[in-house]
Amino acid sequence: MFLRLLQQWALAPITSYRLFHNFVRQDFAARVAGSLGGVLWLFITPIVNILIYAYVFSVVFRAPMPDEYGQTPFIIFLMMGYLPWFAFADAIGRSSTLLLEKAPLITKVMFPVQVLPAVGTLVPYLVHGIGFGLFLCYLAATGHLTTTWLMLPVVFLLQFLFTLGLVAILSALCVFLRDIQQMVALAITTWFFMTPIIYPITLIPEHLRPLLLLNPMHSFVQLYREIVLLDTFTMLNLQIVTVSALLSYFVGGWLFMRIRHAFGDVL
């Protein structure tokens, strides 16, 4: 039973590829429809936020950079953490309404509803992955490209799986507990400031730094920065993100598949 549910969960985007593709295309188009700026707004928002945080922490607070990053500009250091986070936060933020928005379809049409978390995760990662890819192209052109960059797709995939599992859990629970919608927004903001993204880890007291290992997003951010800016990576961080991603993906998928049959009754 357990393995059969996980198999259905993992293979849903493949066995229902046409449906999955149509949902992804519709969701992507809906993001830019009806606005004058269109797809430009997808890039303007993170860029403005990055400039604001860079000014506050590098000019106003004059946050010291970790010694190992040498003369790396603070805005480069900031973007290496913020851009991957933005994809994660976007997917999690939309998870609370993922099934609620599709309520008319879920209650009237029989289809593999397990494709929806994958759609809700893939679209934000495609959208923000474009910006992240362009930023990496810039860094490659300025001499940062090394063979260690081959680890980037692995880390990005693990982050996607980690996010997908959380999206599955939150979207399923929000069908039964609508208050989770407000809790998700608060949790994302708290998680963001508890993760050394817009500030260096040197601002955190040394006796509290080991607690960051309990935060998988800290390990993801550290891996991106180490791989691209330091040409290395910490094995402990890789182990943490691997375990976190697989645990989130399979637990989230199992929970979603276990309670999916009740969605139609509640929605």
Topology, number of strands: 0
Quote the distance from N terminus to C terminus. Answer: 26 Å
Helix content: over 70%
**Order of helix and strand elements from N to C terminus:** HHHHHHHHHHH
Oligomeric assembly: single chain
Radius of gyration: 19 Å
Largest sheet: none
User: Helix- and strand-based class?
Assistant: mainly alpha
Q: How many separate domains? A: 1
The number of distinct helices, counting runs of at least 4 residues, comes to 11
Strand composition percent: under 5%
Low-confidence stretches: none
Q: Taking all residues together, what is the mean pLDDT?
A: 89
**What would the principal axes of the Cα set say about the shape?**
globular
Looking at this protein, list some descriptive labels.
mainly alpha
What does this protein look like?
This protein is mostly helical. The chain has one domain (2-266). Helices cover 71% and strands 0% of the residues. The longest helix is centred in the middle third of the chain and has 27 residues, at 115-141.
Summary of the model, kept short:
By secondary structure, the protein is mainly α. It is 71% helix and 0% strand. It has one domain (2-266).
Describe how the helices and strands are arranged.
Layout: H1 2-15, H2 17-32, H3 41-60, H4 74-95, H5 103-108, H6 115-141, H7 152-176, H8 180-194, H9 216-230, H10 235-259, H11 263-266
